User: What shape does this take?
Amino acid sequence: MSEQAPSWSERWRARLQRLRAPALRVALFALGAAAAFAALLLYQALFPGPRQLTTRDVSNSIAQAFASATPQPAFSERVYQVIQPSLVLVQAQVPGADGKVEHGVGSGVVINDQGDILTSLHVVTEANDIQLTFADGTKSSAEVTVKQPEHDIAVLRANTPPAKLVPATLGNPNAERVGDEAFVVGNPFGLYSSMSAGVISGFDRSFQPVSSNYRLEDLIQIDAAVNPGNSGGPLLNRYGEVIGIVTGLVNPTDQNFFVGVGFAVPINMAATAVGAPQY
Amino acid sequence: MSEQAPSWSERWRARLQRLRAPALRVALFALGAAAAFAALLLYQALFPGPRQLTTRDVSNSIAQAFASATPQPAFSERVYQVIQPSLVLVQAQVPGADGKVEHGVGSGVVINDQGDILTSLHVVTEANDIQLTFADGTKSSAEVTVKQPEHDIAVLRANTPPAKLVPATLGNPNAERVGDEAFVVGNPFGLYSSMSAGVISGFDRSFQPVSSNYRLEDLIQIDAAVNPGNSGGPLLNRYGEVIGIVTGLVNPTDQNFFVGVGFAVPINMAATAVGAPQY
Amino acid sequence: MSEQAPSWSERWRARLQRLRAPALRVALFALGAAAAFAALLLYQALFPGPRQLTTRDVSNSIAQAFASATPQPAFSERVYQVIQPSLVLVQAQVPGADGKVEHGVGSGVVINDQGDILTSLHVVTEANDIQLTFADGTKSSAEVTVKQPEHDIAVLRANTPPAKLVPATLGNPNAERVGDEAFVVGNPFGLYSSMSAGVISGFDRSFQPVSSNYRLEDLIQIDAAVNPGNSGGPLLNRYGEVIGIVTGLVNPTDQNFFVGVGFAVPINMAATAVGAPQY
Assistant: This one.
């Protein structure tokens, strides 16, 4: 029998037959990819992981933090905590007219571990007896060890200092600017360990106290209240560092009370009295 | 016919033939994996999702927030808003020498819903007529209902109180520290509803006003300006809570104006005048 | 030969045979998917990407930022920097009694590019010679170009102004509230360019200076120290904008020093003297 040539349709069937296996394979391949993809989507749906933070989340957190931020206590409160242990009440017995004894009051500040106490010279200059009261209540008589009349500064040493002396931290007046916070702690009118607050009003002021032969130079001017009894006490910056020693005030009536202008000797000048180099 | 042993090359061809199907399958497998991987990369390229935030992003946001943070208004501004509706102007007619009538001015503060008004006793002690002006402008005569001379405190009641009384919030003076903000609102020299600002200078002060038989104890000392007319007005903390009632000032010349030292009776003592337990 | 019907077991074998190829393909498919998945896990293990930030991380960053935030310098410091170049020292030669010459001192502030200087009229009203000292040290005589006695305001023009005039920025007093910061820069007691700080105590005060025929109205009351020499100087808000011109103070003894109450003419009234519309 002669073999019949394959018909047109049979040829096509053969061709398709030949393509069948590859097509199956391609379909298989695509199905595999799709399945892997589906598995991954399932995985992510089941274990989504932490939601990613957005910029908006962060902004909200920040806004909330700002809104709920407890305002810091005033600098003055912290300054007082810092300086109070170093404050000294200075009481001077001054021989008055016709044999009477007058009592002057001033302030002082412990400035080193040796127990040197800075005060204003005019507080103790004519005293024949000086009594100190420390922050812990200890009382002691004291001697003047150094006098610097050109700065109205005296250095005192207690005869029986307290067991624990807390020296103040000294600051750098040259780092201060007009308008910076200025705090005064002292004993105005004998009111023990009083604080007053203001700003630095100016630098490089000169001032001649009533009944002094010296004109004080390079003073710091402040608008924190200073009154009799504040003399010799510390002037402090916002960090509680001593930047000056209160020395006087301006009063146009020549009476001795505050009207808005007080003066302090920069601590870098005052501290030379205890041998510190002037910076 | 002897079957010819398969040649070396044929043996190998057979082996490869046997391997062919598995190799195809492995290739298929690898292609499927690669395709899934490629699909994933494509997906991520098309839908990249939000860029993940970094620590640097957060730091930048915070820095920006700090830089652009609007500074809060001063405590004093908010304190004034809070206390102003509770402030009272106290005017006292005092019989003066030789039949003349003198007018004294002071301050007061509404402290409860019953309309009790705290003021300084010395403002009203000799008055034969007391006129109040409330923050809403209402005027009324008033009677003294309680006197506490040991605290220089008087309680007033308006005869025709305003429709709406706004009592002040009382604070706890024991929670305050030296250096904390101190605000005074009152009528110095008759200047209605004036504010002055300062800090707490000290606690536990005692003070005997001129022309008083009582020595006031446990006073709060402040450096916020107080002057005649401020007496009886509230001393406030940074939150606008009343922590004291202004009572006097130190002036070395015995004249009646501020030089840096004012006094207030702690509110926990003053409020005992209206029956509050002292805390 | 009769064909034997296929046994039960053979029929099953055939069936399994027919299933074999599809099962293999399904297994292949599953393996491909698993492999892709494994590859992905490996990839993520090898290149994990940045750790995702958590809310806790952000909170910590914020807390740290707050803790380490350097407190801003006081407003007063920045205010001084801003206003100082615009400040003017005004010295007035006033013919005194019996032919003597008296020297008055006041303050002024440059308020526009034309070099108009605002000061208090009472500083210069009787002067026959006015000398100005600018912030750069330049000195010049000056003339009064405008007088506004109802506001105690004078406008000065320097005869030889400095090469560079720095006009101050004017603020809006109507935007201020009681309790807002109030800064004064001037020359109290001749102390050049002194700053004092306080708050706005009140608005709408009226005040008649000693030896003036005019009652000043709508004044701003402040508790920042002002003294003789401050008159004519700027009152500033926390941004260093001029909101008033210092004009006087209350002193119950009629002496001229600060006791807690100072006054300034609102700048919107004062600036009408140089033609600005009152706002």
Summary: The two ends of chain C are 126 Å apart (CA to CA). Residues 8-46 of chain C form the longest helix (39 residues). The mean pLDDT of chain C is 89.
